[in-house]
Design a protein that fits this description.
homodimer; alpha/beta; 39% helix
Chain lengths: 327, 327
Amino acid sequence: MTRADGTAAQPRIDGLQYARWSEKVFRQMRAGRVDAVHATICYHESFRETVETIVAWNRLFASHADLVFHGVAAADVDHARAQGRTAIFFGAQNPSCLDGDIGLIEVLHRLGLRFLQLTYNNQSLLGTGHAEAEDAGLTRMGREAVAEMNRLGVAIDMSHAGERTTLEAIAASTRPVTVSHANPASWHDVSRNVSDRVLDALRDSGGMLGFSLYPLHLKGGGACTLEAFCTMVARTAERIGVARLGIGSDLCQDQPDSVVEWMRNGRWTKRGAPAAFPDQPEWFRDNRDFDKLAAGLTAAGFDGEEVGMILGGNWRRFFADSFGPGR
Amino acid sequence: MTRADGTAAQPRIDGLQYARWSEKVFRQMRAGRVDAVHATICYHESFRETVETIVAWNRLFASHADLVFHGVAAADVDHARAQGRTAIFFGAQNPSCLDGDIGLIEVLHRLGLRFLQLTYNNQSLLGTGHAEAEDAGLTRMGREAVAEMNRLGVAIDMSHAGERTTLEAIAASTRPVTVSHANPASWHDVSRNVSDRVLDALRDSGGMLGFSLYPLHLKGGGACTLEAFCTMVARTAERIGVARLGIGSDLCQDQPDSVVEWMRNGRWTKRGAPAAFPDQPEWFRDNRDFDKLAAGLTAAGFDGEEVGMILGGNWRRFFADSFGPGR
């Protein structure tokens, strides 16, 4: 298959999704030629509950082996391309799955975990999320966790974290760090997006920013245009370089609204308000819309190689840097 | 290092131990030139508790990397020999660690589980243990578990099972089955030992019997002589062949008596009587005593190659047959 956008030389990777996984979604991944997806397996779940999710994934891998498989190494992206399948890489958005036990990072790594967020909105045992009033930075256990993740090859994901915790994690880590799904706050100023200081720290440390397509992270929400989004990507490239950029769409396709309530409220509040998923931009509704992103990025001035880097080539490099044993 | 007993060509493997693991025990393994040990990680524990034991093992592997490492494939026996270390293979003596979920066999396999007993003395979800009055054989879930273990490469261990369940598991399995730690009931008639029917089924299916050195399984208990034990091994070889025989010492070295109470009573009874570990035979107290076994087997008439088979060569073959993915 040739690609009009000139990105055929590089894999296509989404740095964050949490769909209601189904054959339909997997077929859309194939239709969109998405070679690899970082899939969330934990929002507020305990270790035991996270293992239930892994068991459910194992069933999906067995029943849809023609479409998806469990990715654990960067080379699995290449295997996926060669086989016409999509490699699913597990990630946790919350260290709740550690049950407070540093030893469970190694256990979860063995079970395939390749990304771990140090915080999810709130303060955690490891650091502080963006939604807290105060961010006291990386904790004692947070520093232990960063070292253990560096050793094992679990990527440190600072999405949903506070700025200070993010900067301290980047400084503490001996390996590149990612903010897998967020946009620059200079474009759309919400606390879930990232400051220029964080962008510069990602640049200086060889990290990665995955641009989010989740409406709350977009200027104008679901009404944000493809042109506005891609212009923002171009401005970010000017600041931190094309090599630091990827997509982390945060696509929550086909999920009922109860899922966004679980994301927001977990078990930490008894006063959680009803919540609903916002409408996606009409130009990014599912995995088939990566072609539209490619066209938009080209229109924003990126050449074919650069579009390929942003849509997956950079993630492929980050996976290779992140998932092997540490030195 | 040359071995006077002529067994140097084959690895030395113990098919079952549950020591209070320590540097002392690991150094004795090295002194006894034991290349691999099947170590129990579950008696009555839940999945979550079993993971705690795996975490504790990971700490031991990290702190004693010069002496032991986590074995997962037959080739690790050879790596252990080449490196002068001991490969530790995980096994569960009770399917309690499955929490009733067939999907956890795959998860535990991923975490390194290579042996799983279908029952431990009592009736389980999979079959029935030797201590029950009635044995109704392999259950519906038991048949599913056997197929899943065959698929993944988890050895089916029928120690502690009833005769009917054992025979039905051997018949249901497409891969060789073991009774990793027991002796012939024809020699010492307790229900934990195995009948001639079970021995013949192991012979006919290419399985393995690991002879136990636990006093309750020995004729005369701790007073059993090395000569009597090795004569029994020779009689068993006459019935089922040398290739079916190994050692599964059931060594519970340095454990407090509270551990044998946990083994017997778990959480299934409120009326568990106090229990104490019996005294080991003076000729088998720790891993250094494998040399004495070698001498005793030689005295009982086995040649050097046969002694090597019984002390590890046969287990090496069984590991190779058992631990890869099923066909």
